[in-house]
Amino acid sequence: MTDKILSLEDERQIIRLMNLYCHYINDGNAEEWAGLFSENGCFERLNPSPASVGGLETPAGATEGRDALHELMIGRRKIFRGLVRHQNSDIVLFKGDHDDHAVGRSTMLITDWRDGPGRVSVITDCRSEFVRKPDGWRIQSVRLKTLPMVAS
Questions:
Q1: Which of 5, 14, 83, 146 keeps 20 to 30 A from 104, CA to CA?
Q2: 104: closest CA among 89, 91, 90?
């Protein structure tokens, strides 16, 4: 298992990337958010997040490529209106298939403040892959699986 441990510097850089991912979504900063991904990066929701159980009415599906990711975030900015917060926790990172590849797992908690007092909207199991490029680490893929929630 120790052969899968990243250097502290690589881990620090990837965790920073994951934190910026959340801040840029929260701020509605589509250009910076898409820029965290590699050119052919992918964001995929493995199952829908229906509003009927407290979710954000997000369909399942994948978005690939930096330009498409930028457009996705522009659409989310209109929906979120700066009133939805993403927090990434329980982050665990490992070396991937080679020195310029890493894989991660985390839990993402999304709270929704659009109707006044905040409430937990979505909890997801997040699986990510990262690639090191000449200008630093980038997100290769983020795959989210929404955990079942009980309607309130």
A1: 83
A2: 91
Q: What is the pTM of this model?
A: 0.90
Span 55-106, pLDDT tens digits: 566 778 999 999 999 999 999 999 889 999 999 999 999 999 999 999 999 9
CATH code of the domain in which 17 resides: 3.10.450.50
3-state SS string for 69-86: HHHHHHHHHHHHCCCEEE
- Structure tokens of 5? 């441990």
| 96 vs 6: CA distance, rounded Å | 9
DSSP letter (8 states) at residue 151? -
23 within domain boundaries: yes
